[in-house]
Specification:
α3 runs antiparallel to α8. The protein contains eight helices and no strands. It has one domain. Helix content is about 75%, strand content about 0%. By secondary structure, the chain is an all-alpha fold.
């Protein structure tokens, strides 16, 4: 047996011992329902982001410029992201001490932060000049880099999310 890489701290233990965490952990159906919601929301997040990213890479969207596509997809992405974070938080609470020590879990959180930074950089650079390239193909290099980076990060996030359940110890 491998020694714990990260000692469990008091905060993680108190989260684990909370009544919400206990209810989720001890219910025969609550964890699977929350996990199903989480997976569905991640699918919507990644799906809507992929539609935009593919357009940024240069795949033509059906009768839409990049700006309109972004405007149309963003509300779905944000609602699904908020629900994914809420359901993910509940899943985390059910085993805070185990997830706290999980390398794939930590890498997933890091990848989500990097994906957010990628989006921020895109909005501060290429998106500010979208009027110059909105309907034009191929898009500028900065848009392509943002699209490829985003797609790569979200695929990594999915991979790491699945890896969490198979990386031990998660006691």
């Amino acid at each position: 047996m491998m020694p714990d890489a990260v000692p469990t701290n008091a905060l993680m233990q108190s989260l684990y011992d909370s009544s919400i965490a206990t209810a989720i952990r001890e219910s025969p159906t609550l964890f699977p329902w929350i996990e199903s919601l989480h997976v569905l929301m991640i699918a919507i997040v990644v799906g809507t982001i992929a539609i935009v990213d593919l357009r940024l890479i240069g795949v033509a969207a059906h009768r839409r410029g990049a700006r309109q596509l972004i405007v149309d997809m963003l509300p779905f992405t944000w609602v699904a992201f908020v629900l994914a974070v809420a359901s993910g938080t509940l899943l985390f609470l059910s085993n805070a001490t185990g997830y706290y020590q999980s390398l794939p879990f930590r890498l997933k959180l890091l990848a989500i932060v990097v994906a957010g930074l990628n989006m921020a950089v895109f909005h501060l650079t290429a998106y500010r000049r979208i009027g110059d390239w909105d309907d034009r193909l191929p898009p500028p290099a900065a848009a392509k880099v943002a699209g490829v980076g985003s797609l790569t990060l979200w695929l990594l996030i999915i991979f790491l999310g699945r890896w969490i359940g198979y990386a031990y110890p998660l006691a």
